[in-house]
Amino acid sequence: MAKSPPKAAREAAEALAIQALSYLGQDGERLGRFLAVTGIGPAEIRSAAAEPGFLAGVLEYLGSDERLLTEFAAASGFEPAQVDAARLVLAGEWERDVP
Questions:
Q1: pTM score above 0.90
Q2: When you count CB atoms within 10 A of the terminal residue's CB, does the N or C end of the chain come out lower?
Q3: Alpha-carbon span 80 to 78, nearest angstrom
């Protein structure tokens, strides 16, 4: 059975995911692709963001496109592996103390 991540790890993962969502939102084309893939309308994004699993989904989407992930990593200062580790924390797949 997977252990729950420490609160600090979850908060850091959430902060990274929020930064990723903000990055997507800074460009109309990036945001449009994200909304099209997820099926979320522009007016629904705030309510969707409150749903469990939404932030993990943002990071999963980001990780599914290597070019986008690389661009986000370069712009944010995070490593792609940190994005995946945060996704695992938010998806409930975190299993150890050291990601």
A1: no
A2: N
A3: 6
